[in-house]
Amino acid sequence: MATTLPSATLQHHSVANPQQNATNNAETEIVYVEESLPNHSSAVENKEKNKEENNDENNDEDEKSTTNKRYMPLLILNYVLLFVGSLSASLLSKYYFVHRGSSKWVSTWVQSGGFPLLLFPIFLPVLLKSTKRKPFSDFNQKMFLFSILVGLMLGFNNLLISWGVAYLPVSTSALLLSTQLVFTLILSSLIVKQKITFTNLNCVILITISSIILALDSSHEKPLGLTNKNYFIGFSCTIGASLLFALYLPVMEKIYQRVNCYQMVMEMQLIMEIAATVLATVGMACDGGFSDMKKEAERVFDKGTAVYWVTILSTVVTWQCCFMGTAGMVFLTSSLNGGICSTALLSINVLGGVVVYKDAFGGFKAVSTVLCIWGFCSYVFGMYIKMKKNKVGRKNNNNGPSTELIPRRNSGGIS
C-alpha cells in the first residue's frame, strides 16, 4: 500500500491538471514562435528586398516602363525635340520659300539628310559609361531589313509631302495633312490594338476641327496660275503622304514592342534615315537636283549663297530633331500620341508664323489655337490619370496580402 501511494499520487496529479499541462504546452509553442519571429521577419524583408532589386533591374533594362528612372527625363526630352524641331523646321522652310527657294528635291533631302546627328545619342551613353550595352549589339537581320523598308517608306513620304506643298496652297495642304490623325487612330486600332477611349477620341475630334478651321481661314492663299492637273497631283500626293505617315506610326510602335532601350530606337532611326536619304539622293541625281541646288544658291535665293547654305543646314538639323522626337514619343507612349503631337503642332506652327513673320492673327486662328490646346491638354491629362492609376495598382500588387503569425496548437491542447 505504501509502495503504491507515490505512483497513485503522481498519476492523480497528472490527471487532475490536464488543463495546466495544455496551457504549459501552448505557452511553450508561443515562446517557440516568438523566438522564430525575428528569423521569419528577416526572411520576409529579404524577400521583399530581392523583389524590389529585381524590379529595379528589369526597369533599368526596359526604358519604356513608366517605373524606370529614365522614363520621365526621356519623355520630356522627346517632347522638347518634337516641339522645337517641328516649329523650327516649319519656320525655316517658310524662310526658304519666302526668299525664292523652290526645289522639291531640296525640301525632300533636308528631311532625312541629318542622320549623322543620330550618332550622338547612340554612342554618347557608351562614352559616358552610362550603359554596358554595345551599339547595334541586339540587331538581327530581320530588324535590319524592317528598318530599311520603313526608311524607304519614310523617304517616299517625304517626297510626297514636298510635291504636295509645291503644288497646293498652304491651307489645303494643312487641311489634308491633318487627316493623318484620323487615319492614325484607325490604323493603330487595327495594327497595335489601340483602345479607342473618350479621351483620345475627344482629342482627335478637337484637333481635326482645329486644323479645318485653320485651313478655312487660309483659303485666300491659293497660288496664282494653279492648274487643275497640278492641283490633282498635289492633292493626291498630300493624301498619300498623310496615309503613309499614319501607317508609319503604328508600324513603328509594333516594332518597338520588342525594343526595350532608347539607344536601340535611335539605331533603328539611323538606318531608316540613311535609307530615306539614299532614296532622295538617287532621285536628285537622276533629276539633276544637285545642279539645281547649286544654281538656286548662286542665282535664285535672294539672301546670298552663305545664307542659303546656313538655311539648308539649319533645316536639316531641325528636321532631324523633329523625327527623333516623333520616334521617341512612339517608343515611350504610343503611335496615337505621336500623331496627336504632330497634328497639334500644325496650329502651334501658325503661332510661330505670327510671332516671327508677323502673319495676321484673326478670330479663326484664335479659335483654332484654343481648340488645339484644349484637345492636346485633355489628352495629356488623360495620360496622367492613366499613369497614376497604373502606379497605384502596382503598389497594391507589390504590397501583397498581409501575413499573420498564429501560435500553433498542440494536439493535446484545448480547442
Automatic annotation (TrEMBL):
The way it spans or sits in the membrane comes to: Multi-pass membrane protein
| Region called Disordered, residue ranges | 1-66, 395-415
Q: Which family does it belong to?
A: Belongs to the purine permeases (TC 2.A.7.14) family.
Task: Tell me the organism.
Answer: Vigna unguiculata
Looking at the UniProt record for this protein, which Gene Ontology cellular component terms does it annotate, in alphabetical order?
membrane
Q: Which GO terms describe its molecular function?
A: purine nucleobase transmembrane transporter activity; purine nucleoside transmembrane transporter activity
Q: Compositionally biased, Acidic residues: which spans?
A: 54-63
Localization per Swiss-Prot or TrEMBL: Membrane
Biased amino acid composition, Polar residues = 1-27
Keywords attached to this Swiss-Prot or TrEMBL record, sorted alphabetically, are:
Membrane, Transmembrane, Transmembrane helix, Transport
InterPro entries, alphabetized: EmrE-like, PUP_plant
**Full protein name:** Probable purine permease
Q: What is the lineage of its organism?
A: Eukaryota, Viridiplantae, Streptophyta, Embryophyta, Tracheophyta
A Pfam family annotated for this chain is PUNUT
Q: Where are the transmembrane segments?
A: 74-97, 109-128, 144-168, 174-192, 199-216, 231-249, 270-290, 306-332, 339-357, 363-385
Domain of life of the organism encoding this protein = Eukaryota
